Amino acid sequence: MAFIQHPNVARVYDLWEDDASAWVAMELVPGQSLREVISQRGRLPLFEVEVILSQCASALDALHRAGMVHLDVKPANLIQAPDGTIKLIDFGLAQQAAQTQELLHGMAYGSAAYLSPEQASGDPVEAASDVYSLGCVVYELLTGRAPFEDPYRTRNSQEMLQAHLTLQPERPSEAVHDGSIPDWCDELVLWALLKDPDARLGSPGRFAELFAQGVDGELQAADIRRLRTQRTSRPVVRATAPAAVALPANPAPVSVLPDPAAPPKPRKRPLLLRLTNPLRPFLWRLVLALFVVNVLLAAVLYIQRGEIPGIISAEDTSLSAGETTTVLVDGLNLRSAPSMSSASMGVLSAGQQVYLRDAPVEAGGETWWPVTIGNPADGLDGYVWANGLDAGHQTVRDRIDLGIDNAVEWLKEKVSV
Q1: In the prediction, which pLDDT does 159 show?
Q2: What pLDDT, on a 0 to 100 scale, did the predictor assign at position 236?
């Protein structure tokens, strides 16, 4: 988890173990959990659910790309910071995907109200398990209660687990009876809550994408049903040993397609490529070396002079007071005054939004922006170093901040064939 850096995932810094217990040092996330938000406000409007779902899905997709599943996605583990950022926390149950979850005395770990059927039954768990739990969270944000939670909350954990395994959830619109939840939303949420993980929505990101299209009026219930049919009609390919198949005595004629395993016919390459083929490894290394040298030179120029001739000018900036911009680097200090020696009021993370409340000021040979964190009307005021903010050159600066190794990987992706 320490290698996962994402604006919607709480950072893990350290692990301490002793004879008594194990402790994880994590990022301190200010704000309140979605459980508290629902308790205070009840169900949320569609546009707020869209914003929350988009961030939750982005966090889970980052986890899944790392080959892991969270297995405890619930409102209590999703923190909403004062600026609206959602942070996924609590990775105590996270494990590698495609493994069977361990049971304790025959019972599954996790919160019964948000447990996927395969997780509750001890079957292998994959990204689809987190999609199911995320569907439960969205259901609760829309209706004020979890899918199988009765209005009086009388079901115990065992009954809740059995409901996930055997019962079909009520449509969200039928749980509120006020017409505020459209048909497309019913179809989409129920798609995420299918018992069969192979028929379920493919990923959290796809869930958020379709939900946003629905909120924008670009999606109807019929579209969801059509997409769902297309997905469930595809055969599921699994890595298993081939089984013997009995063929009929008079099989129907079939079209003959090229054998994908057969080696392709050799194709005569152009003369220039044939002549230069022995030099290609050397040319590639030369191009790579020149690129690395140029990146190093650009970094040195930017650090020493605050500019890269022809790319970034020292005085060039697209920022102005009264607008919102993005923090570029992790660990940017919010200071009480425009000076490196002034007290730090907090530490900002990359991707965080800040409001520029006034014109920049010069102090100690550096430029400082007066900013507000959170609501411009009543947020936290302070000063940040100007070079830590996105001034319209994020692409170039990000290339420098990523380091040489990441820049090389980026180049390989761009020129690969």
Answers
A1: 87
A2: 44
* Token pair 């990923």 in the structure block, residue: 203
Q: Which is catalytic among the residues 14, 18, 19, 72?
A: 72
Instruction: Specify whether the CB–CB gap between 300 and 364 falls below 8 A.
Output: no
Residues 185 and 139: their CA atoms lie apart, in Å, by 10
With 50 as the cut, is the pLDDT of residue 398 above it?
no
Q: Distance between CA 155 and CA 174 in Å, rounded?
A: 19
In the residue annotation, 72 being an active-site residue is answered as yes
CB atoms under 10 Å from CB of 386, counted, come to 18
Q: Residue holding tokens 């409102």?
A: 75
**pLDDT one-digit tens code per residue, 109-145:** 568 899 999 988 888 899 999 999 999 999 999 999 9
Separation CA 211–CA 309 (nearest Å): 44
CA proximity to 299, closest of 415, 140, 148, 406? 406
| Domains 12-233 and 324-392 are alike in CATH topology | no
Residue-wise over 120-130: b if at least 16 C-beta within 10 A, else e?
beeeebbbbbb
Residue type, 139: Y
CATH top class, domain 324-392 = mainly beta
Domain ranges of the chain: 12-233, 274-310+397-415, 324-392
pTM of the model: 0.56
More confident residue, 47 or 236: 47
- Domain 12-233 in this protein, CATH class: mainly alpha
The three state secondary structure string of the chain is CCCCCECCECCEEEEEECCCCEEEEECCCCCEEHHHHHHHHCCCCHHHHHHHHHHHHHHHHHHHHCCEECCCCCHHHEEECCCCCEEECCCCCCEECCEECCEECCEECCCHHHCCHHHHCCCEECHHHHHHHHHHHHHHHHHCCCCCCCCCCCCCHHHHHHHHHHCCCCCHHHHHCCCCCCHHHHHHHHHHCCCCCCCCCCCHHHHHHHHHHHHCCCCCHHHHHHHHHHHHHCCCCCCCCCCCCCCCCCCCCCCCCCCCCCCCCCCCCCHHHHHHHHHHHHHHHHHHHHHHHHHHHHHHHHHHHCCECCCECCCCCCCCCCCEEEECCCCEEEECCCCCCCCEEEEECCCCEEEECCCCEEECCEEEEEEEECCCCCCEEEEEEHHHECCCCHHHHHHHHHHHHHHHHHHHHHHCC
